[in-house]
Amino acid sequence: MILRLFKISIVALALLLSSLAVHAQTASTDPLKPYTACKVPGGLKIKEVTRRTAGDNYREVTTDDGKKRVSVLDGYRVMSGYPDLPYFFANVKIEQSDPASYLQDKEILINEKQHYATIKEATAMVFTDKRLFNGFEDYGFDREKIDVGGQVAVHVLFYDSVHLVVTVYFLNQSKAVFANNRRFETVKQFRELRDDFLSHYSECLKRVAEAGH
Questions:
Q1: pTM for the whole structure
Q2: Better pLDDT: 98 or 148
């Protein structure tokens, strides 16, 4: 009986060690993957996770000085929404910047947000300068009205120590849905949801970053 229990314990230990080894291998070969599991309280659910297609290790953005390239070594898109609504609330892009060009990438992406805040559209844009959320630097721009365009705001979070760039596209919530239950009806309500999302999401992202280093 004792021998049998000993054998079972050995097997259980082997399975545990194997699981830990697989997890460690996944974290080392795909370090961005754990970030895609980050959630926030309040009913938001992760509805889609898509890895960036292998190919170019950069993307182009528009700044005051024209088109600029920023490095993207790898990335994921995470779409989140409320389970009772057919559309998304946030489109999140989690990207790994090249350490050699991270600071330049950061400057370009901040300038991109400043640039879009000056473009004349159907509603004015407001640039949000540096704010801190759990060690992440936040920059972005917001529309002064909701229900205009596809996005109501775009914010980017930077975590310098791991060269992480997280861009959050906050999407407008349609009124044209039966039994509409959208989560904000005013700019004030949206901005409260925005900051709550950025605070909780960055808190989770930080835990993942610290666990990997």
A1: 0.84
A2: 98
